[in-house]
Specification:
Elements: H1 30-41, H2 70-77, E1 80-83, H3 90-99, E2 103-109, E3 127-136, E4 141-146, E5 149-154, H4 156-161, E6 177-181, H5 189-205, H6 212-227, H7 232-261, H8 266-292, H9 303-319
Antiparallel strand pairs: 1-6, 2-3, 2-6, 3-4, 4-5
Helix pairs in contact: 2-5, 6-9, 7-8, 8-9
């Protein structure tokens, strides 16, 4: 087997609707975005997996980098994900797994990925996770899932992502790698809906004890003032790990609830979207605050999101608790 999903072509690939440009956050984070596209390529609905988003918390300097629990993937879709030991060349391990119909998720350097043009490509080194669908070692070409799409890397960039251009004396490239075992038969939609409802209840019981957006709002102006004199590029990293993480997280929660039962969760969906919208608005306010060196307005900027989180949890408690 030369590809896990043989019919996919990066030039003709259409991303899933969860990555539509019309959404507030067309991309979320590399791991969740990758799974959205992989499940879609498999013919499965990624909305079913998103109940875990209700557990997101503020971790003091960042919001939880939300990732779908691997046990949820197994419960919902009978998809099993396991760490792949790397003791030889990475590309040799990946090629073997592709032959066996398994997708490898590999941590790589976005510096060599053309799909990050204007952000990381040939500008800065950054760790990111990709799902390798097709690998042509002789032709120095790879097709891969990354963020909200499906792409190809080749030539010098191919050499770069696998560190083939390094001296023989350099430290071996041993990235963290997972491999995905797909089932012979798809789980039914009825099974996915029933399981997703149960998982939402379990995750709701694991929600933060206090309002995480309120906790963030209490330190937000101070944190921003502390980073105001740093290079402007740091602003993007801070915003990604705070405002974007919870904004994207709750937009995905809204999509999950709409998939489960749009009518029953009408108010919860509205509050989840309010949180997402507030994060987007405050991100623009954050940029202005840093430019103008005026931080006091940030103290109340998150009030709508704080109130929406409380209403959201109350509503979910009456249904999923």
């Amino acid at each position: 087997m030369t590809a896990v999903f043989p019919g996919l072509d990066p030039a003709a690939y259409a991303p899933h609707a969860l990555h539509s440009s019309e959404r507030m956050w067309p991309e979320t984070n590399c791991y969740v975005d990758l799974w959205i596209e992989v499940l879609s390529a498999r013919g499965l609905g990624p909305e079913a997996m998103l109940g875990f988003t209700v557990t997101q918390d503020f971790e003091g300097d960042q919001f939880t980098f939300f990732k779908v629990p691997l046990e949820d993937l197994e419960s919902l879709y009978d998809i099993r994900v396991t760490e792949l030991a790397i003791f030889d060349r990475v590309e040799a391990h990946v090629a073997e797994q592709i032959r066996r119909g398994r997708l490898c998720l590999v941590e790589m350097d976005s510096y060599f990925m053309p799909d990050t043009q204007g952000v990381g490509y040939r500008q800065e080194h950054g760790k990111t996770t990709v799902g390798i669908n097709r690998l042509d070692l002789a032709g120095r070409s790879m097709d891969y899932f990354h963020n909200g799409g499906f792409f190809r890397v080749e030539g010098a960039d191919f050499d770069g992502v696998f560190q083939l251009d390094q001296p023989e004396s350099s430290i071996p490239f041993l990235p963290y790698t997972e491999f995905v075992k797909f089932p012979d038969r798809q789980m039914t939609l009825a099974h996915q809906r029933e399981t997703a409802s149960l998982l939402l209840k379990r995750h709701f019981a694991r929600r933060p004890h206090g309002n995480p957006i309120s906790a963030f709002a209490a330190v937000f102006p101070t944190q921003v003032e502390a980073i105001a004199d740093r290079p402007f590029g740091y602003f993007h990293k801070y915003a990604f790990n705070t405002l974007r993480q919870f904004g994207a997280n709750f937009e995905l929660l809204a999509s999950h609830l709409a998939w489960l039962d749009k009518a029953s969760y009408e108010h919860a969906i509205a509050d989840a979207l309010k949180i997402s919208e507030s994060a987007k608005t405050v991100q623009f306010q954050l940029a202005r605050a840093i430019t103008r060196k005026k931080f006091d307005p940030l103290a109340s900027a998150l009030d709508p999101a704080v109130a929406a989180w409380d209403r959201l949890m109350d509503d979910l408690g009456s249904k999923a608790g």
